């Protein structure tokens, strides 16, 4: 069994977790919900094996290429799903988050992302690579939870005839998004911005240089700062803050993928 | 605007929201318009918007007056907001020392208010234990007028947002100091070279420079062994690597890059007069050596990556030895017998050569140039402030999210219905709901508190 067989098995297990998750939305699906949860847990184990094998084999942190980073982001998302499902119950958000995980796994396994291990360029040889990237991606995984919850919030109509629990449902989604931001935002701040600045100052001799990746992670951070402040002003809560959580995650995605492909800068190592 | 209006404007969350949006928009624009280029670049590549880019300073957006004034306004907003909030928070913490039953109760900040259906009497004791179990500090006071119940926890969270804002103020201040006072000097040193650091009373000497490679030929690391010299005395010797700078006297030295001093390339040339007559010589670029029979050989120049432009001029496409070539001249007496470019690895290439006899050939057998290490010396007095600010920022975030401030007040005054007041900075509605659940617990006779919800 090599890293790719483990990855494939994890992928299949996540796929099943997603399917059972959607099944749990119909009728009294509490059994399916449990099945989905344990499938997710099993997938996480398989995925962890894949990442460990890769790390041992390459002797490098498992996020030095796009394939590794996407795989690690998917792993972090699963971790976030498991934690939130246990603590707060994800309800409708769960299966759609599995959809995100499955999409990330499909991207990671696709031939578009080369699987070869590349030797690390001098700038990347630092233990800050571990800290900076892992904490950032972990933070982004929780922001993904907020993204999905906010998206569902925006797509849930305010009032539906014959469904008096609609408002409570929307309130729960709003709560869920906020709780996810409460975990993701501090992690993102620490990993992306603070650890990023410390590493930049060690490797490049300056903590901030308006490199596109730096600017975009700042933009992402500002979006979530905006999200938190809009909740303080009455009337902005709900719809507007949900919209901002969605935009914030899109900014995070652009920071992750877009900057590498569309803008050139110091972070384009590939 | 009157002073009161200005104060309100500068402390408002609405201003913060407006500024956040504006800064997001401008910062985004700056990543799509290439920064710090010549004016011609924008006229040529962005003809449609160059009339907008240049006057607004969007070509150097992050240090343009437009962007900096937004940052400045943001800084003012942060400062004024803190000035308003910090005393208010302290007042809130102090209120339990005041007569909280007094008619003029201080209502601070937004708080959720609702009326209770009934008066709480003996169940106040139960309520106290419920809240104590949840780590609240509880105070119950009773007077002839009535009773109050005050429970609170998480004072670090009360100041969390202020810590975050203070952290940001310090980071922005550090950034301004960096922008004004930081210095960066690039030093290119060959082995053995000593360079005085401008404005400082010490020098740096490169003792040894090595490049390490991976098996596939890509660079693994650059290592510069350097000595710090003060009054010709070696104070310190250290190897600088990427990610491992040298810190000395408030300055940091970073391994940035490396290169070859191609102007001092040592060439190994083979001169072939005929099958039986050949000779190999070594000389530096710019040198002339005398051969037998009064012949002279001169190495005029060396190009590491030979390329010819449209006008027939030779130039180097890059600083790497991708297509190395040397310009060589040979003369016998007053007569030039050979002039032209000789290419390493391509002895047959004679396109850029002029010679008298078809037999005469010059071949570039080998070449080596001294390599130099590019170090960057920087001093940045803003850095420590940025670290201090970052620390406060992270602590503040952790406090606000994980030790949130919670406050519950029950007021039961004779002649008015009992009032429940809850205060939370974040997640207000959820907290109000939670408290109501806790209150309903107190109603139940045989109270079995099962911990958290």
List the helices and strands and how they pair.
The complex is a heterodimer of chains A (270) and B (453).
Chain A: H1 3-23, H2 30-58, H3 66-88, H4 93-109, H5 128-155, H6 166-203, H7 212-230, H8 239-262
Helix pairs in contact in A: 1-2, 1-4, 2-3, 3-4, 3-5, 4-5, 5-6, 5-8, 6-7, 7-8
Chain B: H1 3-11, H2 13-32, H3 39-45, H4 50-56, H5 65-94, E1 112-115, H6 123-133, E2 137-142, E3 146-153, H7 155-158, H8 160-181, E4 183-190, E5 194-196, E6 203-213, E7 219-230, E8 233-241, E9 246-248, E10 251-260, E11 266-272, E12 278-284, E13 288-290, E14 295-303, E15 306-308, E16 314-316, E17 325-332, E18 335-343, E19 353-355, E20 361-368, E21 371-379, H9 383-402, E22 406-413, E23 419-424, H10 428-443
Antiparallel strand pairs in B: 1-23, 2-3, 3-22, 4-21, 5-6, 6-7, 7-8, 9-10, 10-21, 11-12, 11-20, 13-14, 14-17, 15-16, 17-18, 18-19, 22-23
């Amino acid at each position: 069994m090599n890293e790719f067989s483990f990855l494939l098995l994890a992928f299949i297990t996540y796929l099943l977790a997603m399917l059972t998750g959607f099944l749990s939305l119909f009728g009294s699906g509490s059994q399916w919900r449990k099945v989905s949860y344990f499938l997710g847990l099993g997938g996480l184990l398989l995925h962890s094996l894949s990442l460990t094998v890769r790390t041992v084999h390459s002797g490098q942190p498992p996020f030095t290429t796009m394939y590794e980073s996407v795989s690690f982001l998917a792993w972090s998302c699963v971790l976030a799903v498991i934690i939130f499902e246990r603590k707060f119950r994800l309800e409708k958000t769960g299966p759609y988050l599995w959809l995100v995980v499955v999409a990330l796994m499909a991207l990671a396994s696709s031939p578009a992302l080369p699987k070869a291990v590349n030797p690390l360029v001098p700038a990347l040889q630092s233990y800050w690579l571990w800290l900076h990237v892992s904490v950032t991606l972990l933070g982004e995984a929780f922001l993904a939870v907020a993204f999905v919850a906010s998206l569902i919030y925006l797509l849930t109509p305010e009032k539906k005839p014959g469904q008096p629990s609609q408002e409570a449902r929307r309130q729960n989604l709003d709560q869920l998004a906020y709780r996810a931001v409460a975990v993701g935002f501090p992690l993102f701040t620490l990993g992306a911005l603070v650890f990023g600045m410390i590493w930049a100052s060690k490797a490049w001799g300056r903590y901030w240089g308006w490199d596109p990746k730096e600017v975009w992670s700042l933009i992402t951070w500002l979006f979530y700062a905006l999200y938190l402040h809009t909740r303080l002003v009455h009337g902005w809560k709900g719809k507007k803050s949900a919209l901002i959580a969605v935009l914030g995650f899109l900014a995070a995605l652009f920071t992750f993928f877009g900057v590498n492909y569309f803008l050139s800068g110091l972070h384009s190592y590939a | 605007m009157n002073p009161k209006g200005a104060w309100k404007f500068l402390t408002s969350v609405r201003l913060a929201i407006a500024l956040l949006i504006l800064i997001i928009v401008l910062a985004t624009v700056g990543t799509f318009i290439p920064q710090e280029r010549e004016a011609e670049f924008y006229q040529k590549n962005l003809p449609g918007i160059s009339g907008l880019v240049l006057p607004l300073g969007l070509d150097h957006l992050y240090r343009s007056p437009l962007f900096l004034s937004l940052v400045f306004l943001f800084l003012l907003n942060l400062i004024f907001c803190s000035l308003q909030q910090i005393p208010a928070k302290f007042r809130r913490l102090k209120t339990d020392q005041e007569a909280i039953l007094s008619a003029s109760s201080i209502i601070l900040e937004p708080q959720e208010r609702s009326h209770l259906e009934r008066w709480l009497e003996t169940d106040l004791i139960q309520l106290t234990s419920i809240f104590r179990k949840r780590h609240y500090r509880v105070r119950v006071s009773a007077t002839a007028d009535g009773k109050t119940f005050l429970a609170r926890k998480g004072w670090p969270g009360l100041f969390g947002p202020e810590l975050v804002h203070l952290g940001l103020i310090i980071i922005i201040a550090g950034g301004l100091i960096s922008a004004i006072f930081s210095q960066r000097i690039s030093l290119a040193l060959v082995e053995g070279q000593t360079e005085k650091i401008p404005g400082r009373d010490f020098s740096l000497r490169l003792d040894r420079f090595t490049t390490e490679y991976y098996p596939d030929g890509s660079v693994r690391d650059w290592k510069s062994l350097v000595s710090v010299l003060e009054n010709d005395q070696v104070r310190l010797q250290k190897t600088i690597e990427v990610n491992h700078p040298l810190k000395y006297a408030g300055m940091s030295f970073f391994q940035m890059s490396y290169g070859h001093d191609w102007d001092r390339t040592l060439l190994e040339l083979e001169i072939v007069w005929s099958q039986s007559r050949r000779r190999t010589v070594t000389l530096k670029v710019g040198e002339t050596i005398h051969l037998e029979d009064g012949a002279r050989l001169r190495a005029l120049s060396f190009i590491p990556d030979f390329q010819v432009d449209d006008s027939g001029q030779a130039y180097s496409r890059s600083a790497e030895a991708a297509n190395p070539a040397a310009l060589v001249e040979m003369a016998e007496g007053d007569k030039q017998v050979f002039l032209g470019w000789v290419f390493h690895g391509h002895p047959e290439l004679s396109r850029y050569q002029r010679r008298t006899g078809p037999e005469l050939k010059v071949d570039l057998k080998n070449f080596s140039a001294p390599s130099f290490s590019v170090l960057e010396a920087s001093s940045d007095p803003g850095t420590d402030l940025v670290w201090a600010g970052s620390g406060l920022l992270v602590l503040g975030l952790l406090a606000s999210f994980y030790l949130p401030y919670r406050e519950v007040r029950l007021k039961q005054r004779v002649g008015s219905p009992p009032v429940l007041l809850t205060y939370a900075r974040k997640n207000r509605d959820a907290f109000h709901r939670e408290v109501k659940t806790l209150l309903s617990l107190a109603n139940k006779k045989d109270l079995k508190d099962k911990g958290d919800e």
